[in-house]
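anyone seen this seq b4? input:
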Amino acid sequence: MLNRLKRTLLCTLCLMASVVSTAYATRVFGTAKEYANSELIFYRYQDRITYIKEEVFRLKMDEEGNFEAAFGIDRTTYIFAEFGIYYVYFYAEPDCNYEIILPEYVDKSDGDLFNPYFQPTEMQLGIKGMKNTDLNYLIMDFDYYYNRYFDLKLDELYIKGLQSDVDTFINNINARYKKYNNQYFQQYRRYRIAALKNMVTKSEYESALVYSYYSNKDILYDNPAYMDLFNSIYHNYFDNYLVSPGGADLYRVITYGHSISLLHRLIGSDPKHKRKQFRELVMLKGINDAFANDNLQWLPLLLTLDSLYITTEYPIHQQIAQNIADNSLTMAKGTVALPFELPDTSDNMISLEDFRGKYLYLQFANTQSYSSAAEFDVLKRIYNRYKGLCLFVTILTDTDKEKAKKFISDKSLNWTFLFAKANDKVLSDYKVTAFPTYYLIDPYGMLVMSPAPSPSENIEKYLFKILENRKKK
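predicted toks r here
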């Protein structure tokens, strides 16, 4: 099923590539001396349901900190980067030049690195020479007033709702910005205000809000305000539907029918979802969120998603469906482990393919992490017992490679160590959010355990079973 999705997606990608090839040239440049000789990667979201990111351009700083990059876009695009303690973003428009101002660099502390709940400092990038009619200025200015009001009045808004001064604020902020004719900004403003209305009414009039803002309006796939409110309204839509009076019908359609026409009929019975394009977006959101829960079985969901992918007439929905499948299947038990190529302690490039033919116990760690360091001694004992059966590989994220190499030498750790940078794709591919993290991969490159138990959680008993099975064979 996934192969079929990918084959069809190739056609879509080819079409998209032809569009991008004629897109306008947009340029980013500037100087940031403290970033000299470094490289920053900027991304966009392929969609705002799965939030899968794709690279847009790279900024390679010279020894003076000068940088410049050009890229092609055919519409206003939200672009972001993550480095140090920051999550930075700006809105790029076709055929525009942006002299961006990078924040003063602050690296993550050890506590940040090893904290799975670390939240980066989010900021909109400054742009030199902005006019007050420019899109980035308008959104930055609007967000300042909107967020300041929200932060100051949060308790009052929740307690008093419409009895608060929210209507006065909405009238004032609308009057402040209604004169600007940037369509993207006006849509952004409209849906941020709608989200505020929905919050103060505690979603009491949510159906009316959907009618007014979604049912018969253009779908703004790339507008954060539009999609943020949509994702909030339709969060866990299928799971909530299951406990509604019509929940049994949805369960039957997904679990036994896998019929996209029946699902269209069921979801379309709600007048808010009469329009097919919007209805499909609701269905995609429902399927995506259902994969993360246990109320609907994984395979029927995948088959339903496949049917939607094949029958939809909207290329963007094909892409979202593919992204949902990728997200759900990536790193799942029984699927192929994603490839990587990283330097070892001697700077030789080593790939996952180099470990084919034996079981592979893969560890993501950092020698400065107490949890990682505590596992190394246990892992060393397991390595000495099972190194004939299983390969052991540790991918380190240490920023100081020489210090890490000394740690490896002092501890007499004799298995393979590779190094990854904080923004390396392998970390997002393997969904590493904490150190240490483990996976067990079979001789054919398939994930046997994803994630796998740590050494102290008795991975040894699983390795022992593998060894016993081999002896029997």
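The longest helix spans residues 135-160. The CA atoms of residues 326 and 355 lie 24 Å apart. kinda curious what u guys think
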